[in-house]
Amino acid sequence: MNSEDVFINCPFSDDYDSFFKAILFTVIRSGFNPRCAREEDDGGDVRFDKICRIIDDCKYGIHDISKTDSDGDPPLPRFNMPLELGLFLGAKKYGDAEQSLKKAIIFDREAYRYQKYISDISGQDIHAHNNDVGQLIIEVAAWLRRASKRKTVPGGTAIADEYAVFMKNLPVMLAARQMQPKDLTYDDDVTFIAEWLVRNA
């Protein structure tokens, strides 16, 4: 298990993209390595096995269960996030001594909303980001600093300000590489964030 690796369990939908980028930005800015199911695109790899390997590698986990609502036709709930949260908590509970050191933060968009559909985690400390990217960044940064005991993790308000500037700069960075927002892969997101931070942080 790597103490630099942070598992990100969140929706990968268009309506969550700014939140996903904000988590990536905060994790990288704080000196950690983001990991998620999108990091590899191997058609020969079983997705569930890949997720289990990543969870096994990561000491930290950021879980957002705010987008479990029903959608599509027919409207069905999205259970990927609760499933991956369960895998992470299960690894912590039933894994070896090293795995028991895992630390997790769980987000929903409203306080106590989760109790209506996943009441088994009612004993956990759930954080509400209130659909606010800035609040999400502040919460993630504070948690990383607290969970890792690293004094080098910047304050969340400062990171949120930097993220806002990064998002304003991103279209120019994309244009320089003849790319559109829809062209971005997970690796591209990580690369653009890392390059921007080298120049600006």
Description:
The structure is a single chain. The chain has helices at 17-29, 47-57, 80-94, 133-148, 156-176, 186-200; strands at residues 2-9, 33-35, 58-64, 103-108, 126-128. It has 201 residues and is of the alpha/beta class. It has a single domain (2-200), classed as Rossmann fold (3-Layer(aba) Sandwich), CATH 3.40.50. Strands 2-1-3-4-5 form a five-stranded parallel sheet, sandwiched between helices. Strand 3 (58-64), helix 3 (80-94) and strand 4 (103-108) form a beta-alpha-beta unit. The protein is globular. The two termini are 28 Å apart. The mean pLDDT is 86.
SSE layout:
Layout: E1 2-9, H1 17-29, E2 33-35, H2 47-57, E3 58-64, H3 80-94, E4 103-108, E5 126-128, H4 133-148, H5 156-176, H6 186-200
Parallel strand pairs: 1-2, 1-3, 3-4, 4-5
Instruction: Report the biggest beta sheet as strand number plus sense, adding barrel if it closes.
Output: 5 strands, parallel
Q: Unreliable runs, pLDDT <50, ≥5 residues?
A: none
**Name given to the CATH architecture:** 3-Layer(aba) Sandwich
What is the helix fraction of residues, given as a range? 40-55%
Kindly summarize this structure in a few lines.
This protein has helices at residues 17-29, 47-57, 80-94, 133-148, 156-176, 186-200, and strands at 2-9, 33-35, 58-64, 103-108, 126-128.
